[in-house]
Amino acid sequence: MSKVIFSIRYHIHPERREEYLSVVRELKNIIKAEGLESYSVYEQKNKPNCFEEIYVFKTQESYDNFEEDTDERIDILMTKLSDMIKEQSTQYSTLFEVNNV
User: Fold this and answer.
1) Domain range holding 8?
2) 8-state DSSP, 101
3) How many CB atoms lie within 10 A of CB 4?
4) Overall domain count for the chain
């Protein structure tokens, strides 16, 4: 079974940075799902306020089912996050592990 890495990169409004960091701290404590190995948030070097969320899933099935497992608090926090992100700065990436190499 192949692992899946899903990432979201975006820029936030600088004046919302502290609020953003607070929301991300809470998310890191509560995001849990069947098959989710890790959830991390990184800031890009030399680009303040450019962040990337990285989700690592054990299998494609756990990745496919991820959104079904969220609870109300996570939905609220994700909505708050989306309000802090600069328009048209979001990039998504999904990587599937190659097993037969």
Assistant:
1) 4-96
2) -
3) 22
4) 1
Q: Mind listing the pLDDT tens digit of every residue in the chain (101 residues)?
A: 789 999 999 999 999 999 999 999 998 888 877 788 999 999 999 999 999 999 999 999 999 888 776 678 888 888 999 999 999 999 999 999 998 66
- The enclosing domain of 39 has a CATH number of 3.30.70.100
Structure token digits, residue 36: 């989710």
Whether this prediction's pTM lies above 0.85 is answered by yes
Written as one string, the DSSP assignment of 22-89 is HHHHHHHHH---TTEEEEEEEE-TTSTTEEEEEEEESSHHHHHTGGGG--HHHHHHHHHHHHHBPTT-
Closest-CA residue to 49 (of 80, 21, 12): 12
